[in-house]
Specification:
about 15% strand; 6-stranded parallel β-sheet; 17 helices; 12 strands; binds uridine-5'-diphosphate; Rossmann fold; 2 domains; alpha/beta
């Protein structure tokens, strides 16, 4: 039965489409709230940059993909704004410029709890709501190297994906009692795959008898994916190569036109990532936190071929430290890594187990229970 809508709690999710990870994480939490507490929450997502901020900040979602093509420029802007003092100085400088927009955002979106999934909105929002506080939670979506912007000690709770990120949060002044290590929220379908992996292979026309190397370039198909796919093809491995190009149609066409020497399947953006991962044996990708966490849940060993300097350095360190994969910034290193697994099933199995060990498939559900608790909804005991 539908609950009385006046009794429903309103959750405001603040995110931005700067990279697919923030949106995926937000959608995963909304899904988990619905599953854990049916008919209890009204969830609203606001892309803070696109929907509220003045130009040029408003164009951040459009500027982000081309910016990441220049990793060194990205690294400079990341590093020069990171650190306690520097981040505060940047915010102090920017705040007058965004204050009106943030006040409007707060006024137009009354809610019972705010969940921020973006580093750049926390301080501005918390400063704005000083006098009329709404419970405020931050859900950090970078695995280890988390920018100072994520952390404002006025937040009621900061949820982080790893113990390493917890250390950073504390270092930046978040009281230890306000930091919870939960994991990165991922969609329910990664937790409970909806289709049998072999049946999926058959439906897609993939061979059942060969290991599958899944290459994913992120939501926008960014990074040196083309060179990586070419190198694997030239190595003529005894495997199937499946490439997901995201929204990058040019890349998709160029890959289709390669002189192919091994079984392969090329796709554009897919909504079936959980099925693709469950039906594959290893994942070659850039160091995006969402894709990495999803790969862990699917028990896929990872080959990371690129990362955004600063922000994604820690993702690489984490994967390597946990022996769930390797860092292979050059195409020939990618080939070496995947070949070692294609040719040695025991090594592949060991890496797959290491990947599964660090998986946190219940993160979204656990965060949903925390949100409910903070919003004053009775949370059932953990199953
Ligand atoms: N993704 C998807 N379909 C695609 C390509 C990517 O659903 O065809 C999803 C992927 O599963 C992940 C997100 O897009 O959840 C990418 O997030 P990540 O944090 O890995 O990278 P970002 O693009 O945010 O840097």
């Amino acid at each position: 039965m539908q609950a009385d809508s006046s009794a429903r709690k309103r959750v405001l999710f603040l995110f931005s489409d700067t990279g697919g990870g923030h949106r995926s994480a937000t959608l995963a939490m909304i899904e988990a709230l619905g599953l854990e507490f049916p008919d209890t929450f009204d969830c609203k997502m606001v892309d803070v940059f696109r929907d509220y901020l003045p130009a040029p900040l408003r164009y951040a979602p459009e500027i982000y993909p081309p910016m990441t093509k220049f990793p060194e420029t990205w690294a400079i802007s990341y590093r020069t704004t990171d650190g306690k003092r520097r981040s505060r100085a940047v915010i102090r400088m920017l705040f007058p410029y965004v204050a009106r927009a943030i006040r409007r955002l707060y006024r137009e979106n009354p809610s019972d709890i705010i969940v921020s999934v973006h580093p750049l909105v926390n301080t501005a929002m918390l400063r704005t709501m000083k006098k009329h506080p709404t419970p405020f939670m931050t859900v950090v979506t970078d695995m280890v190297t988390t920018h100072a912007f994520w952390f404002d000690r006025r937040a009621d709770l900061v949820v982080v994906p790893t113990d390493e990120a917890r250390e950073v949060a504390i270092e930046y002044g978040i009281p230890a009692g306000n930091v919870r290590v939960v994991g990165l929220p991922t969609a329910e379908r990664f937790r409970v795959p909806t289709s049998d992996p072999m049946a999926f292979r058959v439906r897609q026309g993939w061979r059942r008898d060969l290991p599958v190397i899944l290459v994913v370039g992120g939501g926008d198909g960014l990074g040196p994916m083309e060179a990586v796919v070419k190198a694997i093809n030239e190595a003529k491995l005894n495997a199937t190569l499946v490439a997901i190009c995201g929204r990058n149609e040019g890349l998709q066409q160029r890959l289709r036109d390669l002189p192919w020497q091994m079984p392969h399947h090329i796709y554009g953006f897919t909504k079936q990532m959980p099925e693709f991962m469950a039906a594959s044996d290893m994942l070659v990708t850039k160091a995006g936190p969402g894709t990495i966490s999803e790969g862990f849940i699917a028990g896929l060993p990872l080959v990371l071929y690129s990362r955004l300097p600063g922000q994604e350095d820690g993702n690489v360190q984490y994967v390597v430290k946990k022996q769930a994969g390797v860092w292979a910034p050059r195409p020939h290193q990618v080939v070496q890594a995947v070949a070692s697994w294609v040719n040695d099933p025991a090594a592949l199995k060991r890496a797959a187990q290491a990947s599964r060990r660090v998986a946190k498939p219940d993160a979204a559900r656990e965060i949903a229970r925390i949100v409910a608790d903070r919003a004053g909804v009775y949370a059932p005991l953990k199953r």
